[in-house]
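Researcher: I'd like a structural prediction for the single chain below. Treat it as a standalone chain; there are no partners to consider.
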Amino acid sequence: MSVSKTINFPIERTTKSRLSETDFSNLEFGTVNSDHMFVVDYYKGEWKDAKIMPFQNISVSPACSALHYGQTVFEGMKAFRATNGDLLVFRPEKHLERLNNSNRRLCIPEIPKEYFFDAIDELVKLDQEWIPNKEGCSLYLRPFIFANDPFIGVKPSSAYKFMIFTCPVAGYYKGTVKVIIESEFVRASPGGIGAAKTGGNYAASLLPAKLAADKGYQQILWTDSKEHKYFEESGTMNLMFVINDTLITPSLDGSILPGITRDSILTIAKDWGVKIEERRISVDEVVEAHSKGTLQDAFGTGTAATITQISAIHHNGEDMVLPDVATRELSNKLNKTIVDIKHGVAEDKYNWVHRIK
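Model: Treating it as a single chain, here is the predicted structure.
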């Protein structure tokens, strides 16, 4: 897909790039920022003063309402360079759709399509030298919006700031992950904001994730808020199991973030004729499948992680060890297919890749 530029805004180029100071052979996720950022403000009912400027700190009032009441939403996308030199972004229209769905849930004005796409195109073109030339790496795009009213009364803000900056990144996880089933803390519940990509959901995850890490586990498997009997997500990822050659993933019930990678995987797998079930899947069902030897795979999906395979699931004091990664045909094949589409190597039959002119 491609979108033509529809608005004009000033671009201030940096006079001192940090590109030469960056060690691209030793990237960690989210620790290095590229040279530029996009900013546009919302006030008096309009989007105004759009611009691209050098990456820098911003100033906000101590009374900035987002700091007090958490009215903020973010997204994450990736840009790649194809072998022919084209600049590619994977499914930005779906990220804009989810961004605006999240905005509506938090009483934040929707981002106009033209600002979103034009900002992405200009930023990626401007900072294209920051796209790592290394397998497993990419240029990560972080669009976000926050309430910017200097008012501490509890109400939707009347002013907002929407920004996008970029980071050269390696993979979010290094290899497989060991996970632990969470049966005490709750990430989200039906009727809440679990389906919105907002900071509060991630804040709720920090303590249980730290407790899991203290025990030697890289991530947690969230369960439902009422009974802790059914799986929901895995930390920063959607969750999938393969049992008896059936791909099973929790259905989107309002407390689970609708992942773009999740949607992409299900679309491809359906085309391949894989049996798919989107439904509630219980802890007991997975434990039983493991005991019978029918739990063939478990993995998380997400923009940052793409597909991250789970090596072991901790339950009631024991680790359920999963099959060796090399034997997992479906998740390995899905991961390669999505990576090849993102890089322009495989046919883009779904029109998912946005090519920047």
